[in-house]
Amino acid sequence: MDLTPPDPEEARRSARRAALAEVNEKACTFFERILWEHAKGEVAREHLRKRGIADDTAKAWRLGYAPNLWDALIKSHALEGVDPRLVEEAGLGIPRKKGQGLYDRFRGRLIIPIRESGRIVGFGGRLLEGESEAKYLNSPDTPLYQKGMTLFALDRARDSIRREGVALFVEGYFDAIGLHQAGVSSSIATCGTALTDKHLELVTKAGARELVFVFDGDAAGMRAAQRASEIAAGQGTPARVLVPPGGEDPDETVLRVGVQGFREMLAVAQPSLEFLLDRALGQLPKGAPIEVRVRAVEAVRGIVQAAPSPLARDLYVEKVAEKIGATADAIRRALAGKSSAPPAAKPQPPQRDAEKSLPPSVLKAELVILAAVIRHPELAPELAHSGAVGEFVQPALRAAADAVCSGQDAKGAIRAVEPDQLRQRLLDAVSEMEQAGDQTDAKRLSTLLRKHAQTVALERKQRASPRVPRP
User: Fold this and answer.
1) Among the listed ranges 185-189, 357-361, 383-387, which one has the minimum average pLDDT value?
2) Which residue has the higher pLDDT, 250 or 424?
3) In angstroms, rounded to a whole number, what is the distance separating the alpha carbons of residues 56 and 52?
4) Closest by Cα among 315, 277, 313 to 296
5) C-alpha span between 274 and 235 (Å, rounded)
6) Which fold has domain 151-273?
7) 98, 304, 423, 462: which has the fewest Cβ within 10 Å?
């Protein structure tokens, strides 16, 4: 018997988490009732029908709907008597900028509860009504819920993962729900964030000996598959990549070929190391200069050396040799460090190091400018002609601003922003402008750009660290 006295601080934190879970449970019940019992839930019921989600499945997963109103949940009987501080801490309410009280975080969204250890820890929301740059909105991190340490549907998939030894990662909540409905019950998804080492640790503890990443074939899906494959390779975890044909959702593929047919597709899916090798070599242009080809060989060194067997390593070497236009022996010598290749170009500092030295005032200014142009695309030419994008200090925001000014889709530019925390801050900035009724015009944008230039100049003067060079 453990006679160690309980830690009072841990007991307090545990009680707080229990209180947050209770608030989430009340909110979930409210969202369920709106979906199934209220006329405002019809738009969500229709979406589920079109998506092929059966009523029994939706009820089993406790899906709900948040009406497109500012305070439907906050003023509901469900939260009557609940401390507003708990509602805010749970991520369900946001403080009003003018006046007192909270307004609903989730509005006009199909609600997906996220469960862990038998309780609801957070929510995801799919936009159905109203306007927002964020198609999906997730609960913020709370004492009960951290996106980087939580996997959607793991509570339901755990037994299948332990039995089969395989964890099937898909991109979205409804991909996971659809696969479970179709009979593939080892399916899980991250909660609106990229795969992390902690996620891998979770599925390994659940009994996964192999991973399969089933992602879309678009640019965002391929980037996600590459990041996931790199993490799996870093952990030494066997993994495969499957891209459903013809742009199908995974559950559509299962319905077309059957569960057994889908499992056969998974079994012959491309090994993730081979996927990474193809991605790296695929970026090499035809007739590339010698220096570029040498750097390409250096770039795939880790992939080839991580091959699971000598035969696989030889096949990878032959693939590299064919693409590079060199003999297999020359590639082997280069990978072994015995070639006389010229020194590689000096690497640029990692983005995360740049962000550590990025002053908060500069980052905030750049987020506001980019959010304003995303909200008002007609201002993109003004931003482009000002030349201010070249003065952006944050590389990912600078690239996003470049994309928007070039006429690219704003949503695609947002999806390309990394890391996930920065992308979420940009989405939050856009959302805050929407909620405040922002009416930025050319004059207001000019003011924002001038303040940004002044802030950057001041920070450069006060700090010894130089501006991050533009790639």
Assistant:
1) 357-361
2) 250
3) 11
4) 277
5) 16
6) Dna Topoisomerase Vi A Subunit; Chain: A, domain 2 (3.40.1360)
7) 98
pTM of the predicted protein model: 0.71
- Mean pLDDT of all residues in 66-87: 95
Residue type, 379: L
Q: How far, in Å, CA of 307 to CA of 234, rounded?
A: 12
The percent of residues above 90 in pLDDT, for the chain, comes to: 50
What CA–CA distance (Å, rounded) separates 376 from 83?
A: 38
Rounded to the nearest 10 degrees, how much is the dihedral formed by the CA atoms of 42, 175, 62, 69? -40
The Cα–Cα gap between 285 and 377 comes to 33
Q: Where are the domains of the chain?
A: 8-145, 151-273, 283-335, 351-462
Minimal CA–CA distance to 270: which of 311, 212, 313, 310? 212
C-beta separation of 34 from 66 below 8 A: yes
* 3-state SS class at 40: helix
Q: Give the pLDDT confidence score for residue 351 in this predicted structure.
A: 41
pLDDT of residue 349: 36
Q: Among the CATH numbers 3.90.980.10, 3.90.800.10, 1.20.1420.30, 3.40.50.1110, which is that of 8-145?
A: 3.90.980.10
Residue percentage of the chain with pLDDT more than 70:
92
Contact (CB, 8 A) for 161 and 186:
yes
Residue with tokens 């509005």: 107
pLDDT on residue 471: 44
CA 322, 328, 333, 337 dihedral sign is: positive
Question: Token digits for 196?
Answer: 């992390």
Q: What are the CA-CA distances from residue 207 to residues 155, 187, 204, 271 (Å)?
A: 13, 14, 5, 20
- The structure tokens listed for 341 are 């290749």
Q: How far apart are CA 145 and CA 63, in angstroms?
A: 18
CB atoms within 10 A of CB 127: 18
The residue assigned the tokens 């979420």 is: 424
Read off the pLDDT of residues 21-53 as tens digits, 9 standing for 90 and up: 999 999 999 999 999 999 999 999 999 999 999
